[in-house]
Amino acid sequence: MSEDLNVVLAHKLAEAGVDSKDDSRHRIIEILEAAGLAIVAVATAWCGYNAARWDGRQSLLYGQSSRLRVEAALAGTEGGQQRLLDVVTFNTWIRLQETKNEKVAGIYVRRFSPEYRIAFDAWLKTEPFTNPDAPMGPANMPEYHNHKLMEAAELNRQADEAFDRGSLARDNAEKYVRGTVLLATILFLIALAQRFKVHAVRVGLLVVAAVMMIYALATVGHYPRL
To answer: What is the pLDDT of residue 25?
Structure first.
């Protein structure tokens, strides 16, 4: 009887040791799962926050681009009207010159815009009435600069730049959204692993989730931030 009792006790102690080892591994796995869930949850919130900021940046830049386009259109219209007025005035001056009406022609010269007058004076120095190689008119002279048309070109350049920056902000927001989707997949794998009692399956899912988490965190870490 004594020997049988010792054998039973030995078996129970061995089973207790195995159960203790299983409990220890189970607790380690639970700790790893909890840590993974915490890290992924924080990373997901961070991605969502940055995606929202880049979305706001995109809207702001697109709004600036639209405003600059409107200002460029207004400046371009005003510049075009001024240029047309100068050209019409110049054509009238040409006709008055042909009729030798110097007094009235002088009145039209004074009606030129300051910018056109500079080009007009430079054009006269080319002796246009006797020089066949002279430019066709003051508007064709390198001295002619229409301030409003130049302003319109600059505003359009700024609008293009703002639009490009807005497109870049949109791309950055989409990157963070993709990061959020990847992190959500990792959360799903960890939650799925917790449903399995088979140790090998649970550990396998956690390993896959861990590899994906490392990749996701490294990728998100390289994304641009505001």
So the answer is: 76
